[in-house]
Amino acid sequence: MTSEKDADALLVRVEDAGVAGFANAIGWTSSQVPTTWPMTVLPRTPSVAELVRQCSHGGLVPIHAVQSFRYRRPLRISETLTCETSLTGSTNERCSLKLHMTDTSGEPVCDANSTLLLARTLPPTAVVRDPASAPGSANPPASLESSLLTAEMFRTYQQASGDTNPVHHDHAAAQSLGLERPIAPGMMILGMLTSLLARTLEQPDIARLDAMFIAPVPAETILSLSINTTPTPGRYSLVATDRARRVYVKATAVAA
Question: pTM score, two decimals?
């Protein structure tokens, strides 16, 4: 992996069929375009194709670490967007990927920023507990649901999103990183969290979304997804934990 910056642009139509398949993969039931759908654009860009090629050549696997979205307005089915991406990468540590989406009049619609770790093996992650999910918590979540994560769910998400990372479906690739089995796509978990938030809100427009992927989520984990209100009106805390209250994904969303 070389330290460089690439930029490219392409026109993308927000197609109903593709959006529906993606929505189904994350449990999104709103008629609006899912908040995390812009990530499906990235695999189509030359810069990401080059990232995948260089990672494969260098024996590296990209792992999501941080993700953010900024919306000026919701995406609309059937509209065409100009999508510009830029990629900056380091030799063996991490890279940053930016996506800027504008409509046909040149008005900005969405910006998505990703930070990816480029790993040969994954170091041990610290165990972070979520006090809000403890029994008898003084601040119970506004919404809570549990889901058993399966390899089939991972494959469905990868097909819908264009994510080809083998660590999500190939046991050998997962074991090469020191994992026992494939891990969930981080963006799938974030998508499931935003889907629960959309079902919680009367008007599921999200203006800002910031997420941290704290630890990899192995297949066959029973994951608890929770939405918590905050002292700031319109601001929500989104957390994915297991039965031991270990935090895997933590995010903050701000309603439009």
Answer: 0.90
Q: How many residues does the chain have?
A: 256
Three-class DSSP labels, 9-51 = EEEEECCHHHHHHHHHHHCCCCCCCCCCHHHHCHHHCHHHHHH
- Helices 16-26 and 151-161 pack at an angle, to 10 degrees, of 160
Percent of the chain with pLDDT over 70: 88
Q: Which H or E element spans position 190?
A: helix 186-200
CB 91 within 8 A of CB 41: no
- CA distances to 21, 82, 87, 174 from 41, in Å: 14, 11, 14, 25
> Tens digit of pLDDT for each residue in 80-117?
999 999 888 755 678 899 999 999 999 999 999 999 98
**Distance between CA 222 and CA 200 in Å, rounded?**
21
Separation in Å, CA 129 to CA 83, 134, 146, 167, 251: 38, 9, 17, 25, 15
* Measured distance CA(44)–CA(47) in Å, rounded: 9
Mean pLDDT of 68-78: 97
Query: Which residue segments constitute the domains of the chain, with CATH numbers given?
Result: 5-255 (3.10.129.10)
